[in-house]
Amino acid sequence: MDDVGAGSVSSSLSQLNLNKNDDEKNFETFALIWCDLNATKAEDKLQIQVQLRKAMNYIKTFDNVKNCEHWLRCRQVTSSCEKFILIVSDNCGHEIIPQVYELPQLVAIYVFCINKENNENWNERYEKVQAVLTDASQLILLIKSNQYKLEKLDDVTSLPMSIYNISSAKENSSTGVNGNFLWFQLFIEVLLRIQHSAEDRQDLVELCKKTHVGNTSQIQLIDEFELTYSPSNALWWYTRESCLYKILNKALRCQDIDTFALHIDCISGISDGHSPSSITRAYRAQLMSSEELDRIRSSIGSYISMNSFLSCTLSREIALFIISSTSTQISNILEAVLFEIEIDPLLEGTKPHADISSESYFQNEKEVLFMLGSIFKIHSITETDNIWTVKLLLSSENDHQLNELSNYLKNKIEDEPVFLSLGNILSDMNEWQKASKYYQYQLQQLNDKNSYSAGRCYRGLGNIAYETGNYDLGIIYDEKALKIFLSLSNVDKAISICYNNLGLGFQHKKDYEKALEYYNKCLEIDKRICGPESIEVAISYNNIGYLYYNQEKIDNALVFYNRALEIREKYLPSDHYALARTYVNIGTVYHKQKEYEKALSCFQKSLDIFIKSRREMHIEMAVIYCNFGITYEATSKLELALDYLLKADQIYRYSLPSTHPNVIENQEHLETVNQKLKCKF
Question: In which ranges do the TPR repeats occur (predicted)?
């Protein structure tokens, strides 16, 4: 556990049940949604759905407009990587299309009706409406044809990447300024250490079969994969257009750890199967938003990680053709970008890359494949004839600017059991349910249940319990961890962390005397082993400040918050996430003192830092939004209050159970603000 406030064992996946609730999960990017009062009754429409599954495996039908709209809006939050194709009938199209048209994940609409003349103006009124059709065979043919184009377009518009900003390189935290970059590099390092087996591959096969029941064309491919796959033909299978390729790419884009882990056998086969390449240049066609392009343009000299396999071509002409054939479809929305990648064949320490033309399913594309997590230095960016050329240099972990990062990653997981590492990474990401699963699995794998690793698993489970509001369980786990650590030698830091966590647990139970006792024990150890002005001591000051805040001892709280801030401002970069946490806490004190402008200033400082270092749906973003909302409510700026409270509500409900105190408190403020707005008007 960190601040509080307002805010090597042999490892295999075969025994880990990774997918218990897959019935509603779409493992591919595109989902076909059909809204028709008779969609689930008419036999002819059921047959159409069977044919359409050859283009899109996931089909969801609704015979109620409100249910369909609700599903789409919820999915917009819970599965932001998905894209929706909507079929509507004339009996519900007039109602649902205006309601959902603006959803950004809705990319195409088809009107399937009885009377075409009465519905022909749909195309003119709504750009996303692809066609108005009365013939089933035409509907199937058009959707299949357009879907092929959409998937090709998706390949050049969806490229998960993260940037390692050299100016912030001192912040080597998986939740810091370079958090996404560091997280993915660490994640790959950990996953590739997993010992995969035939049983793991069978888990993947069974998942594919389960999610493709009735899809005969894909079932045939899955059967073929089961019979013929070997590490030597992993590349051939990856490049083949099949559900395996689609599932892996979706997992990479959405950071779906469980699904991604099932592909480790294939990924290792791709990674291990190639010796150093002699190629010196490769090209990649890409369409990017202006915001994405600006991020690259402002990061010249920094590093970029491609968080998926990067498919390129040896031919500049092929890359330019891809740009010209796709950019015309959405030229007013996205920028055309050509990545020109220079490769030093003698450079050591790079991720694997190779000319795979001879092994690819599509041999005429002159394909070059870079291993996921490959790192490139951003050399330059220029624009000619409305095409931006971004010159990248393939980088090595031996690069002096990356060497510190490489050492950090290795030290972070050195001699640490694989699933403990995964649990820690997922916990950093607020993926608490998944993290808990890996901690529990690691405990099962350990022979010594009183080892240091076991203690860390219990401590990780305790953190999750606290974060999800189960403080009694958190205390139980931390007491188990503390008992283990107290029996070991040279683990003072681990003991200190347990004391800190137990202080948090008892503080939330309002046992302030016991909480302060544990915080002081933590502070005593940290002053002794880390120094009186250490970052660890600042954490204790912050937590004691929060305890006093909860006791309504506001002046004492501000004293300890300022002690924490003084140390952090002295030793941390100005955009460190720990500073953001301190600003939030000081802001809550100012709010309590009715110094609302000072409070808002603190919250804004915190938000500016967290925008750089946190994922959009991170829980700490919700805490800040909630504080903004409460403060604007206090100053009678109700529209602003409502806006921020709704943002907080969206994240809280995504991350926390409905019974969590943060969810309940935010909901109460929402209801109060809504009531005030009704009275106002």
Answer: 496-529, 538-571, 580-613
